[in-house]
Amino acid sequence: MLVPTMADTEGLVNALKRLLKGAGMTYADVAVHLSVSESTVKRWFADRNFSLQRVDAICELLGVEWHDVIQQSQRDSVLIAELSQEQEQALVEDVRLLLVGYLLLQRWSADQILARYDVGEHELTQLLARLDRLRIIELQPGNRVRTLVAPNFRWRDGGPLEHLFETRVRDTFFDSEFNAPGEIEQFLYGMLSDEAIEHINTKIRQLAEDYVSASQRDRMVPLSRRHGTSMVVAFRRWGFPAFDALKRADGVKE
């Protein structure tokens, strides 16, 4: 029999956990079925160390097929694209909660957060529990987490995160000469046709996708080789007001 393979081992393990939980089964049940100790099963799940034979045996215990596990994994992999008003409000009201949520989306571990930031272990556990209740993460044993939100999730129009950016972040970001290594600022101007405007918008959307893709790829790079970055791209039909004030009242003469 051909057995489907799955590149995302973490997704496979999480799918098995959910199927076991849904069936009311525990690691002890798996241990009995596979004739191993419960501690061995716990280690398999913690280390994500599964042979195809082990997965087959767990599927047999659950009474499911491989495609059921794959479908569960695919359902789990659907990430939240936009937070609710309640979720955004909770984040902006607590800067520590916002910080931890941001770091988790960047694949930081609990140990890395504790080592880098002035957050105590007990406080971090409480923050993780709050993020779990908000359904931003799924908290797992040992303070391991599974993020439920897409790293490039959209801000709500006029919502708390957008308001935070407008009132507290934007001016701080632009308070720079943009002349340090890796920094760049360009202000361009010109008169464009509707077709050219749409072309530029398409390029900007592609640039944003490239930035998100690079951020996701680099989540596996050691922290010592990564740097906090932000990118703001804005484009609109606009003219310098001082120039607009000099326009003829009767319009353009070709």
UniProtKB/TrEMBL annotation:
Gene3D superfamilies: lambda repressor-like DNA-binding domains (1.10.260.40)
An example Gene Ontology molecular-function term: DNA binding
Name of the protein in its database record: Transcriptional regulator
Domain of life: Bacteria
Domain HTH cro/C1-type: 16-69
Pfam families given in the database record: HTH_26 (PF13443)
